[in-house]
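Example complex used in Figure S2.
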Amino acid sequence: MELTPTGTVILGFLSEGEKSGYDIKTQVDKSTRFFWTASYGQIYPELRRLKDAGMIEEAGPSEGERKRIAYRLTEDGRRTFEQWLLAPASTLEMRHEGLLKLFFADSVDTRHRQDLISGIAQQHREKLDQLKAVEAGIEQADDELACDLVLRFGIEFQEWIIDWCERETRRKEA
Amino acid sequence: MELTPTGTVILGFLSEGEKSGYDIKTQVDKSTRFFWTASYGQIYPELRRLKDAGMIEEAGPSEGERKRIAYRLTEDGRRTFEQWLLAPASTLEMRHEGLLKLFFADSVDTRHRQDLISGIAQQHREKLDQLKAVEAGIEQADDELACDLVLRFGIEFQEWIIDWCERETRRKEA
DNA sequence: GCTCCCATGTAATTGGTTACATGATTCA
DNA sequence: TGAATCATGTAACCAATTACATGGGAGC
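Predicted assembly (348 residues):
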Protein backbone atom coordinates (compact mmCIF):
# COMPACT_ATOMS: atom_id res chain seq x y z
CA MET A 1 0.00 0.00 0.00
CA GLU A 2 1.05 3.54 -0.75
CA LEU A 3 2.21 5.57 2.23
CA THR A 4 1.23 9.21 2.47
CA PRO A 5 3.90 11.63 3.74
CA THR A 6 2.30 11.78 7.17
CA GLY A 7 1.84 8.03 7.09
CA THR A 8 5.60 7.49 6.94
CA VAL A 9 6.31 9.55 10.02
CA ILE A 10 3.54 7.81 11.95
CA LEU A 11 4.85 4.35 11.09
CA GLY A 12 8.33 5.56 11.92
CA PHE A 13 7.46 6.65 15.42
CA LEU A 14 5.33 3.57 16.03
CA SER A 15 8.30 1.41 15.02
CA GLU A 16 9.90 2.56 18.28
CA GLY A 17 6.94 1.43 20.38
CA GLU A 18 3.29 2.10 21.17
CA LYS A 19 2.23 5.71 20.88
CA SER A 20 -0.92 7.82 20.68
CA GLY A 21 -1.61 10.54 18.14
CA TYR A 22 -0.82 13.08 20.81
CA ASP A 23 2.52 11.39 21.56
CA ILE A 24 3.44 11.42 17.89
CA LYS A 25 2.64 15.11 17.56
CA THR A 26 4.72 15.89 20.64
CA GLN A 27 7.70 13.95 19.34
CA VAL A 28 7.47 15.43 15.85
CA ASP A 29 7.53 18.89 17.38
CA LYS A 30 10.73 18.29 19.24
CA SER A 31 12.62 16.16 16.75
CA THR A 32 11.66 15.80 13.10
CA ARG A 33 10.00 19.20 12.94
CA PHE A 34 13.02 20.74 11.24
CA PHE A 35 12.83 18.51 8.20
CA TRP A 36 9.40 16.87 8.45
CA THR A 37 6.32 18.40 10.08
CA ALA A 38 2.88 17.02 10.87
CA SER A 39 -0.22 18.60 12.40
CA TYR A 40 -3.14 17.10 14.30
CA GLY A 41 -5.29 17.72 11.26
CA GLN A 42 -3.13 15.22 9.41
CA ILE A 43 -2.20 12.81 12.16
CA TYR A 44 -5.62 11.79 13.46
CA PRO A 45 -7.26 11.14 10.09
CA GLU A 46 -4.12 9.32 8.96
CA LEU A 47 -4.18 7.08 12.05
CA ARG A 48 -7.71 6.13 11.08
CA ARG A 49 -6.64 5.32 7.52
CA LEU A 50 -3.63 3.28 8.62
CA LYS A 51 -5.83 1.32 11.00
CA ASP A 52 -8.41 0.68 8.29
CA ALA A 53 -5.58 -0.50 6.04
CA GLY A 54 -4.43 -2.94 8.70
CA MET A 55 -1.00 -1.38 9.21
CA ILE A 56 -1.57 -0.39 12.82
CA GLU A 57 -3.88 -1.54 15.59
CA GLU A 58 -5.09 -0.12 18.87
CA ALA A 59 -3.01 -1.11 21.84
CA GLY A 60 -5.48 0.35 24.31
CA PRO A 61 -4.58 2.46 27.33
CA SER A 62 -2.09 1.03 29.79
CA GLU A 63 -3.18 0.25 33.33
CA GLY A 64 -4.17 3.28 35.33
CA GLU A 65 -3.50 5.69 32.49
CA ARG A 66 -5.80 8.49 31.59
CA LYS A 67 -7.95 7.93 28.55
CA ARG A 68 -5.90 7.75 25.41
CA ILE A 69 -5.64 5.60 22.29
CA ALA A 70 -2.22 4.11 21.73
CA TYR A 71 -1.38 2.29 18.53
CA ARG A 72 1.18 -0.32 17.58
CA LEU A 73 2.41 -1.59 14.24
CA THR A 74 0.93 -4.79 12.85
CA GLU A 75 3.17 -7.26 11.03
CA ASP A 76 1.96 -5.73 7.81
CA GLY A 77 2.73 -2.24 9.06
CA ARG A 78 6.25 -3.17 10.07
CA ARG A 79 6.90 -4.73 6.68
CA THR A 80 5.62 -1.61 4.93
CA PHE A 81 7.75 0.61 7.16
CA GLU A 82 10.90 -1.38 6.46
CA GLN A 83 10.24 -1.34 2.74
CA TRP A 84 9.85 2.41 2.88
CA LEU A 85 13.04 2.76 4.90
CA LEU A 86 15.14 0.87 2.38
CA ALA A 87 13.59 2.40 -0.74
CA PRO A 88 15.33 5.44 -2.23
CA ALA A 89 14.17 8.73 -0.77
CA SER A 90 12.48 11.12 -3.12
CA THR A 91 10.95 14.08 -1.33
CA LEU A 92 13.46 16.88 -0.95
CA GLU A 93 11.89 20.30 -0.79
CA MET A 94 12.75 23.63 0.69
CA ARG A 95 10.76 26.83 0.93
CA HIS A 96 12.98 29.62 2.13
CA GLU A 97 11.42 33.06 1.93
CA GLY A 98 14.60 34.75 3.14
CA LEU A 99 16.59 33.41 0.20
CA LEU A 100 13.79 34.42 -2.15
CA LYS A 101 13.94 37.99 -0.90
CA LEU A 102 17.69 38.06 -1.22
CA PHE A 103 17.37 36.68 -4.74
CA PHE A 104 15.19 39.65 -5.73
CA ALA A 105 17.23 42.21 -3.82
CA ASP A 106 19.00 43.76 -6.78
CA SER A 107 16.53 46.63 -6.85
CA VAL A 108 17.23 47.73 -3.27
CA ASP A 109 20.31 49.39 -1.87
CA THR A 110 23.26 47.65 -0.23
CA ARG A 111 22.15 48.41 3.27
CA HIS A 112 18.80 46.73 2.84
CA ARG A 113 20.48 43.79 1.18
CA GLN A 114 22.63 43.44 4.24
CA ASP A 115 19.50 43.50 6.39
CA LEU A 116 18.13 40.59 4.40
CA ILE A 117 21.26 38.55 5.07
CA SER A 118 21.07 39.43 8.76
CA GLY A 119 17.45 38.37 8.77
CA ILE A 120 18.32 34.96 7.34
CA ALA A 121 21.04 34.51 9.96
CA GLN A 122 18.59 35.48 12.68
CA GLN A 123 16.01 32.95 11.58
CA HIS A 124 18.58 30.19 11.62
CA ARG A 125 19.91 31.29 14.99
CA GLU A 126 16.45 30.73 16.39
CA LYS A 127 16.30 27.27 14.85
CA LEU A 128 19.73 26.57 16.27
CA ASP A 129 18.62 27.56 19.75
CA GLN A 130 15.64 25.25 19.53
CA LEU A 131 17.79 22.35 18.39
CA LYS A 132 20.32 22.97 21.14
CA ALA A 133 17.52 22.94 23.68
CA VAL A 134 16.51 19.52 22.38
CA GLU A 135 20.12 18.37 22.54
CA ALA A 136 20.39 19.54 26.14
CA GLY A 137 17.40 17.36 27.00
CA ILE A 138 19.22 14.20 25.97
CA GLU A 139 21.15 12.48 28.74
CA GLN A 140 24.31 11.91 26.76
CA ALA A 141 24.40 12.88 23.10
CA ASP A 142 24.96 9.42 21.74
CA ASP A 143 26.16 9.69 18.19
CA GLU A 144 25.63 6.01 17.71
CA LEU A 145 21.88 6.56 17.80
CA ALA A 146 20.62 7.55 14.37
CA CYS A 147 18.16 10.09 15.75
CA ASP A 148 20.95 11.86 17.65
CA LEU A 149 23.04 11.84 14.51
CA VAL A 150 20.26 13.64 12.66
CA LEU A 151 19.94 16.12 15.50
CA ARG A 152 23.63 16.84 15.26
CA PHE A 153 23.25 17.25 11.52
CA GLY A 154 20.53 19.81 12.16
CA ILE A 155 22.72 21.77 14.54
CA GLU A 156 25.74 21.84 12.26
CA PHE A 157 23.50 22.67 9.33
CA GLN A 158 22.13 25.78 11.06
CA GLU A 159 25.63 26.73 12.12
CA TRP A 160 26.88 26.50 8.56
CA ILE A 161 24.17 28.82 7.26
CA ILE A 162 24.77 31.34 10.06
CA ASP A 163 28.47 31.20 9.28
CA TRP A 164 27.81 31.77 5.59
CA CYS A 165 25.78 34.87 6.40
CA GLU A 166 28.52 36.23 8.65
CA ARG A 167 31.24 35.52 6.09
CA GLU A 168 29.20 37.28 3.45
CA THR A 169 28.66 40.27 5.72
CA ARG A 170 32.39 40.58 6.41
CA ARG A 171 33.17 40.22 2.73
CA LYS A 172 30.86 43.13 1.95
CA GLU A 173 32.40 45.29 4.65
CA ALA A 174 35.92 44.69 3.41
CA MET B 1 -3.31 43.30 -0.12
CA GLU B 2 -2.11 39.93 1.08
CA LEU B 3 0.38 38.19 -1.16
CA THR B 4 0.13 34.46 -1.67
CA PRO B 5 3.39 32.51 -1.77
CA THR B 6 3.22 32.20 -5.54
CA GLY B 7 2.22 35.85 -5.76
CA THR B 8 5.53 36.90 -4.23
CA VAL B 9 7.63 35.05 -6.76
CA ILE B 10 5.58 36.44 -9.63
CA LEU B 11 5.94 40.03 -8.44
CA GLY B 12 9.63 39.35 -7.88
CA PHE B 13 10.29 38.25 -11.42
CA LEU B 14 8.12 41.01 -12.87
CA SER B 15 10.14 43.54 -10.87
CA GLU B 16 13.00 42.73 -13.25
CA GLY B 17 10.90 43.49 -16.31
CA GLU B 18 7.96 42.33 -18.42
CA LYS B 19 7.41 38.60 -18.45
CA SER B 20 4.75 36.05 -19.39
CA GLY B 21 3.56 33.17 -17.22
CA TYR B 22 5.67 30.87 -19.33
CA ASP B 23 8.75 33.05 -18.81
CA ILE B 24 8.23 33.03 -15.06
CA LYS B 25 7.90 29.26 -14.95
CA THR B 26 11.08 28.87 -17.02
CA GLN B 27 13.03 31.19 -14.74
CA VAL B 28 11.72 29.58 -11.57
CA ASP B 29 12.86 26.21 -12.86
CA LYS B 30 16.40 27.32 -13.42
CA SER B 31 16.89 29.62 -10.48
CA THR B 32 14.59 29.73 -7.46
CA ARG B 33 13.50 26.12 -7.82
CA PHE B 34 15.87 25.00 -5.08
CA PHE B 35 14.23 27.07 -2.40
CA TRP B 36 10.94 28.19 -3.96
CA THR B 37 8.93 26.29 -6.57
CA ALA B 38 5.90 27.21 -8.63
CA SER B 39 3.84 25.25 -11.15
CA TYR B 40 1.67 26.37 -14.05
CA GLY B 41 -1.35 25.34 -12.03
CA GLN B 42 -0.43 28.06 -9.55
CA ILE B 43 1.11 30.66 -11.83
CA TYR B 44 -1.68 31.23 -14.34
CA PRO B 45 -4.54 31.53 -11.85
CA GLU B 46 -2.35 33.76 -9.69
CA LEU B 47 -1.57 36.05 -12.64
CA ARG B 48 -5.30 36.46 -13.08
CA ARG B 49 -5.78 37.32 -9.41
CA LEU B 50 -2.90 39.79 -9.36
CA LYS B 51 -4.31 41.47 -12.45
CA ASP B 52 -7.79 41.66 -10.92
CA ALA B 53 -6.21 43.17 -7.80
CA GLY B 54 -4.50 45.81 -9.91
CA MET B 55 -0.96 44.79 -9.06
CA ILE B 56 0.02 43.83 -12.59
CA GLU B 57 -1.22 44.73 -16.05
CA GLU B 58 -0.90 43.25 -19.51
CA ALA B 59 1.96 44.61 -21.52
CA GLY B 60 0.86 42.87 -24.70
CA PRO B 61 3.12 41.02 -27.10
CA SER B 62 6.08 42.87 -28.51
CA GLU B 63 6.28 43.57 -32.23
CA GLY B 64 6.63 40.49 -34.37
CA GLU B 65 6.52 38.11 -31.45
CA ARG B 66 4.51 34.97 -31.30
CA LYS B 67 1.31 35.13 -29.34
CA ARG B 68 1.96 35.53 -25.65
CA ILE B 69 0.73 37.60 -22.72
CA ALA B 70 3.43 39.56 -20.96
CA TYR B 71 2.72 41.39 -17.73
CA ARG B 72 4.33 44.30 -15.96
CA LEU B 73 4.01 45.64 -12.44
CA THR B 74 1.68 48.54 -11.78
CA GLU B 75 2.69 51.25 -9.31
CA ASP B 76 0.60 49.46 -6.74
CA GLY B 77 2.27 46.15 -7.51
CA ARG B 78 5.74 47.61 -7.17
CA ARG B 79 4.86 49.13 -3.82
CA THR B 80 3.46 45.82 -2.59
CA PHE B 81 6.56 44.02 -3.80
CA GLU B 82 8.90 46.42 -2.03
CA GLN B 83 6.91 46.16 1.17
CA TRP B 84 7.16 42.39 1.00
CA LEU B 85 10.89 42.58 0.31
CA LEU B 86 11.59 44.67 3.38
CA ALA B 87 9.22 42.84 5.73
CA PRO B 88 10.72 40.06 7.85
CA ALA B 89 10.69 36.67 6.15
CA SER B 90 8.60 34.00 7.76
CA THR B 91 8.31 30.89 5.60
CA LEU B 92 11.17 28.50 6.26
CA GLU B 93 10.30 24.89 5.62
CA MET B 94 12.13 21.79 4.66
CA ARG B 95 10.87 18.34 3.80
CA HIS B 96 13.75 15.94 3.60
CA GLU B 97 12.75 12.31 3.30
CA GLY B 98 16.36 11.11 3.42
CA LEU B 99 16.88 12.65 6.86
CA LEU B 100 13.58 11.19 8.03
CA LYS B 101 14.71 7.72 7.03
CA LEU B 102 18.04 8.18 8.72
CA PHE B 103 16.23 9.39 11.83
CA PHE B 104 14.31 6.12 12.02
CA ALA B 105 17.26 3.94 11.08
CA ASP B 106 18.01 2.58 14.53
CA SER B 107 16.13 -0.61 13.77
CA VAL B 108 18.27 -1.49 10.74
CA ASP B 109 21.88 -2.64 10.64
CA THR B 110 24.92 -0.44 10.17
CA ARG B 111 25.32 -1.26 6.53
CA HIS B 112 21.86 -0.10 5.63
CA ARG B 113 22.32 2.99 7.71
CA GLN B 114 25.40 3.74 5.65
CA ASP B 115 23.34 3.27 2.50
CA LEU B 116 20.92 5.90 3.76
CA ILE B 117 23.74 8.40 4.24
CA SER B 118 25.08 7.61 0.76
CA GLY B 119 21.60 8.13 -0.62
CA ILE B 120 21.37 11.58 0.93
CA ALA B 121 24.77 12.50 -0.50
CA GLN B 122 23.70 11.26 -3.91
CA GLN B 123 20.54 13.37 -3.91
CA HIS B 124 22.51 16.47 -3.08
CA ARG B 125 25.15 15.65 -5.67
CA GLU B 126 22.41 15.74 -8.28
CA LYS B 127 21.19 19.10 -7.00
CA LEU B 128 24.77 20.33 -7.06
CA ASP B 129 25.19 19.28 -10.68
CA GLN B 130 22.04 21.15 -11.64
CA LEU B 131 23.18 24.29 -9.88
CA LYS B 132 26.61 24.11 -11.46
CA ALA B 133 24.97 23.80 -14.86
CA VAL B 134 23.06 27.00 -14.13
CA GLU B 135 26.26 28.68 -12.98
CA ALA B 136 28.03 27.65 -16.18
CA GLY B 137 25.28 29.38 -18.16
CA ILE B 138 26.08 32.76 -16.62
CA GLU B 139 28.61 34.83 -18.54
CA GLN B 140 30.67 35.85 -15.54
CA ALA B 141 29.54 34.79 -12.07
CA ASP B 142 29.03 38.26 -10.70
CA ASP B 143 28.89 38.07 -6.95
CA GLU B 144 27.66 41.61 -6.79
CA LEU B 145 24.35 40.50 -8.25
CA ALA B 146 22.07 39.23 -5.50
CA CYS B 147 20.71 36.40 -7.63
CA ASP B 148 24.23 35.12 -8.30
CA LEU B 149 24.97 35.35 -4.61
CA VAL B 150 22.01 33.11 -3.88
CA LEU B 151 23.14 30.70 -6.58
CA ARG B 152 26.54 30.51 -4.95
CA PHE B 153 24.83 29.93 -1.61
CA GLY B 154 22.97 27.02 -3.15
CA ILE B 155 26.15 25.48 -4.48
CA GLU B 156 28.08 25.79 -1.23
CA PHE B 157 25.06 24.55 0.68
CA GLN B 158 24.91 21.34 -1.35
CA GLU B 159 28.65 20.94 -1.00
CA TRP B 160 28.43 21.24 2.76
CA ILE B 161 25.80 18.51 3.01
CA ILE B 162 27.77 16.18 0.73
CA ASP B 163 30.84 16.84 2.83
CA TRP B 164 28.94 16.08 6.03
CA CYS B 165 27.84 12.74 4.60
CA GLU B 166 31.40 11.88 3.59
CA ARG B 167 32.82 12.89 6.95
CA GLU B 168 30.22 10.77 8.69
CA THR B 169 31.02 7.81 6.47
CA ARG B 170 34.73 8.08 7.21
CA ARG B 171 34.03 8.42 10.92
CA LYS B 172 32.06 5.19 10.86
CA GLU B 173 34.79 3.36 8.99
CA ALA B 174 37.49 4.43 11.42
C1' DG C 1 -13.91 25.37 41.64
C1' DC C 2 -10.65 26.97 38.38
C1' DT C 3 -7.00 26.55 35.35
C1' DC C 4 -3.80 24.08 32.83
C1' DC C 5 -2.52 20.37 30.31
C1' DC C 6 -3.76 15.91 28.19
C1' DA C 7 -6.15 14.12 24.42
C1' DT C 8 -9.03 13.38 20.26
C1' DG C 9 -11.11 14.96 16.65
C1' DT C 10 -13.46 17.81 12.55
C1' DA C 11 -14.44 21.65 9.13
C1' DA C 12 -13.00 25.26 6.38
C1' DT C 13 -9.69 26.85 3.80
C1' DT C 14 -5.29 27.21 1.48
C1' DG C 15 -1.79 25.89 -1.42
C1' DG C 16 0.00 22.96 -4.47
C1' DT C 17 0.94 19.14 -8.05
C1' DT C 18 -0.31 16.46 -11.91
C1' DA C 19 -2.34 15.47 -15.85
C1' DC C 20 -4.77 16.94 -19.40
C1' DA C 21 -6.54 19.94 -23.37
C1' DT C 22 -5.53 23.04 -26.87
C1' DG C 23 -3.30 25.29 -30.42
C1' DA C 24 0.40 28.12 -32.65
C1' DT C 25 5.13 28.38 -34.49
C1' DT C 26 9.64 26.80 -35.68
C1' DC C 27 12.76 23.89 -37.74
C1' DA C 28 14.52 19.74 -39.70
C1' DT D 1 4.85 16.93 -42.68
C1' DG D 2 6.06 15.74 -38.38
C1' DA D 3 8.38 16.62 -34.04
C1' DA D 4 9.77 19.86 -30.71
C1' DT D 5 8.97 23.83 -28.34
C1' DC D 6 6.28 27.90 -27.09
C1' DA D 7 2.31 29.18 -24.70
C1' DT D 8 -2.02 29.34 -21.94
C1' DG D 9 -5.07 27.39 -19.30
C1' DT D 10 -8.33 24.08 -16.37
C1' DA D 11 -9.95 20.08 -13.47
C1' DA D 12 -9.16 16.62 -10.30
C1' DC D 13 -6.88 15.57 -6.64
C1' DC D 14 -3.71 15.70 -2.66
C1' DA D 15 -1.61 17.50 1.46
C1' DA D 16 -1.54 20.49 5.00
C1' DT D 17 -2.58 24.31 8.26
C1' DT D 18 -5.62 26.65 11.20
C1' DA D 19 -9.12 27.21 14.06
C1' DC D 20 -12.43 25.33 16.46
C1' DA D 21 -15.13 21.95 19.50
C1' DT D 22 -15.13 18.88 23.18
C1' DG D 23 -14.17 16.81 27.43
C1' DG D 24 -11.37 14.45 31.14
C1' DG D 25 -7.92 14.62 34.80
C1' DA D 26 -4.33 16.93 37.76
C1' DG D 27 -3.06 20.11 40.92
C1' DC D 28 -3.56 24.42 43.23
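The first strand of chain B starts at residue 19 and ends at 20. The longest helix of chain B spans residues 146-173.
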